[in-house]
Amino acid sequence: MRRVYLDNSATTPVDPRVVEAMLPFLTEKFGNASSVHFYGQEARAAVDHARREVASLINARPNECVFLSGGTEANNLAMRGLCEAHEQHGRHIITSAIEHSSVRGICEALEKRGWEVTRLPVYDDGIVRVEDVRAAMRPDTVLVTIMLANNEIGTIQPIAETAALIHEERARGHKHTWLHTDAVQAAGRMTVDVETLGCDLLSLSAHKLYAPKGVGALFVRRSVRLTAQNVGGHQERERRAGTESVPFIVAFGKAAALARAELAERVEHMRRLRDRFEVGVAATVSDIVFNGRRDARLPHLSNISFRYIEGEGLLINLDMQGVAVSTGSACSSGSLEPSPVIRALGRTDELARGSIRFSLGKDTTDADIDYTLEVLPRAVENLRRLSPLYQKALAEQACAPV
Fold first, then answer.
1. Which among 83, 199, 331, 399 is annotated as catalytic?
2. Which end of the chain is less crowded, N or C, counting CB atoms within 10 A of the terminal residue's CB?
3. How many CB atoms lie within 10 A of CB 382?
């Protein structure tokens, strides 16, 4: 059976060049980066080099990048750390209705501690409106957290414009409002420049960049003060205690360097295949809805709702034929509820439950797309044949006046 992996938004395969870079730090270069002897300093130099590479990927200073275990921990340090450090200035948060489950979960946890959270709509195109951010701003707003690009539909949010708004508010005297953006899906799939974006905090995760799971980074602008969430050590400038995972940090650095060098080539490759895939689906499958704005989005991602069938059933059917896809965020798998992201677009529960995320990668081939376009229409047809809703729709069409 042919195997096709179209779930790169969930995770990516580790690039062999990344494996090659990290292997020595799993064997002979095993030192603790906090040790002062040769082995420790060898590890420290490798961590420092990786920090420079990750910082270069987002046009940051190396000392503004904190290494930690991944995107979820980066979001926790950014949001909890900022709110706890500045709660004397206010206890209000602004976020969007389509954030990753980790951001949603942190907001809910802070609400239980007395914080107020305003969740902004995104309308049918999946884009937050800057004017809605402006209308939601209050004197006690401490944190605005809006993702750079959505993990299910790929829509790119107006972060630079939101940052400009917050800077205006600071000039008017609201000096204690900061902007965090979750860029986990965006990095390596579009240009991410913290100076152009103007954000104060930005989250990254290595396993979306063809590096191993278990390492990420948080950009913290020099003027931002956080309360550490991991305590008990002096690592990472006392922002995140714990012995550094040197092999994984080295891998992250190598992946970041490759992503920066190959960005234009990867984007062009993924966009071409994604667009060809969507044209093929539209030509061969009826009763579909493309979710989210089709232009301002990441180049690798396509989210499609298939009427009259359950997305979970289609996922399983495709998997049995060797094609790996997703019904939404991997962190929300197992949930019986319709995707909150698709529901936020104003879609019905039926369309939300029938949505599938196809996410391509740098190694996706034309043959992969051809095979998927071959098996997908048959899978949809087979499932619809078993659907009472589809049969009812066919009967209604047959009885409709010409």
1. 331
2. C
3. 13
What confidence tens digit (pLDDT) does each residue in 269-311 have?
Answer: 999 999 999 999 999 999 999 999 999 999 999 999 999 999 9
For residue 356, CA distances in Å to 7, 23, 301 come to 10, 36, 11
* Residue whose pair of structure tokens reads 């081939």 in the numeric block: 365
Using alpha carbons, select from 135, 195, 129 the residue that is nearest to residue 169. Answer: 135
What is the set of domains in the chain, with CATH numbers? 4-10+263-393 (3.90.1150.10), 16-259 (3.40.640.10)
CA dist 37 to 209, 242, 321, Å?
Answer: 32, 19, 54
Contact 354, 293 (CB under 8 A): no
Q: Which residues pair with 316 in a beta bridge?
A: none
User: Hey, what are 81's tokens?
Assistant: 């750390």
**Overall average pLDDT of the 150-172 stretch:** 96
pTM: predicted TM-score of the whole model, two decimal places = 0.95
Residue 23 amino acid letter: L
Q: Rounded distance, CA 331 to CA 329, Å?
A: 5
Torsion, Cα of 195, 198, 199, 203 (10° steps): -30
The verdict on whether 331 is a catalytic residue reads yes
pLDDT, position 395: 77
